[in-house]
Structure formats: structure tokens, C-alpha cells
Amino acid sequence: MKLPPYRLKKIWMLLAGFILAFLLTIPVKLAIAYYQTPLPQAILTLGGGSSREEFTAFFAQYYPDMKIWVSSGTPPHKAREIFRAAGIADHRLHLDYSATDTVTNFTTLVDIFQQQQIQHIFLITSDFHMPRAKAIATIVLGSRGIAFTPVSIASKKTELESILRIVRDIVRSLLWIVTGYTGTEF
């Protein structure tokens, strides 16, 4: 049975309305998280070169009670070496290699943060990568009521990532919210 065009249009409008209503809850969830937990409780570093781990190891020395997650960074032996050299205890460090890209850096860890009742994290990545990371974090972490404070690392790259990559990953993040699927092949 084929639906008449006016019914199909109503269904699409209703679906779009539900999605829009859900997306409008993200700023509210973020505001609540920032209010309830104004200071970060953990550190998340996005992999992409040992300089990010080196900076994080130095940064983490100022927050001795915080757990640290590194998502798809340098190989485990090298990462642990970096953190041990900075005096960071192994029990604080969580190396996760399940992500394949920036979107999955967040989608693979957001459940863990929720389970550990983490409502606010430091988000560490390179300066050229931060706009895309913030866009994804706003959607993925924000949808779960987890706030973030960005910490950029200076890099040698002078250009930010393209707006096309940012928009693509925003769409992928929205797809993950709706379907649980990240569209990694896009």
C-alpha cells in the first residue's frame, strides 16, 4: 500500500520535528552539566601524534586526581612510557584504541563516561583540529549531558580543518544519535 503524498509529507514533518526537538535539548543538557559540575572531572585526549600525549602528561600533573583517557593515540608501550616519564600512575591512564576517527573518538567513550558519572571533561587536541572536535563533542557528549572544556595544543599547521569535514562529522554525529551508527565510510 502506497501512502498518499500529503500523509508522507506529514510523516516527514513529524519526524523532523522530533529530531529538532531532541537537538534543542542538547544546549539545555550542556547548561545543566556545566552548572552541576563546573570543573572538569577527567581528561580526554584525541590521538593524533605523540605531542598530544606529551602535552597531556604534563597537563595531568596539575590535576593529580583526574583519570586520563587517550583515544586511538600512539602505541600503548610508547604512550605508557610518556606518561610514566611525567610521573603519571598507570591506574590513572586509560588507553582506548577502538576509535577509527574523530567521531568514534567520542562515540566509543561516551558510555564509559556516563557509567563513571563523569559530567565534565577536559578535551585535549591540536589547535587546527579543535573546531571539528568541539562540534562533534557538542553533539555526542552534549546529547548525554557531558560538558567539556577545550584545551588546544599549538601545532605547526597554520590552517584549520575544512568546513566540509566539520559539516560531514556533524552529520555523522547526528546519525549516531538517531541510529547508533557512525557512518565511518563517509
Automatic annotation (TrEMBL):
Transmembrane segments: none annotated. InterPro entries: Cell_Envelope_Assoc, DUF218, Rossmann-like_a/b/a_fold. Residues 41-156 form the DUF218 domain. Pfam families: DUF218. PANTHER family: DUF218 DOMAIN-CONTAINING PROTEIN, INNER MEMBRANE PROTEIN, PROBABLE PERMEASE. This is YdcF family protein. It comes from Anabaena subtropica FACHB-260. The lineage of its organism: Bacteria, Bacillati, Cyanobacteriota, Cyanophyceae, Nostocales.
